[in-house]
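2024-03-11 09:14:02 INFO worker-7 job=invfold-0412 stage=load source=structure_tokens
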């Protein structure tokens, strides 16, 4: 019985070594392409300024709408649409601002 236990350990090590050999054979794969941005790096500051400006204008219009309309005349769809679009522009504007500053997130 002891002989079987020792034999199974030896086979396990051999299988493990064979697996490691198979992993080493992947080093012959062709080199991978570099990951590049779909937007040129020179556009980051411009995109940041425009997107943040649009987002701030939409946020201001949202606050003006909330302050000037009465509770009976408000539209939930308009509030959600304005808030959502402003959020998307402010989010992407912040992303491009960080990218233009060299903080790659």
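2024-03-11 09:14:09 INFO worker-7 stage=emit residues=105
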């Amino acid at each position: 019985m002891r002989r079987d236990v020792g034999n199974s350990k030896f086979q396990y090590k051999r299988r493990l070594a064979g697996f490691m050999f198979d992993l080493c054979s992947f080093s012959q794969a062709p080199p991978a392409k570099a990951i590049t941005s779909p937007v040129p790096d020179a556009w980051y500051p411009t995109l940041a300024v425009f997107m943040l400006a649009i987002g701030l204008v939409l946020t201001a219009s949202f606050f003006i709408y909330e302050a000037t309309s009465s509770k009976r005349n408000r539209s939930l769809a308009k509030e959600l649409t304005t808030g959502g679009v402003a959020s998307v522009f402010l989010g992407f504007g912040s992303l491009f601002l960080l990218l233009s500053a060299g903080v790659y997130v």
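2024-03-11 09:14:09 INFO worker-7 stage=report msg="The helical segments are 2-24, 44-68, 76-100."
2024-03-11 09:14:10 INFO worker-7 job finished
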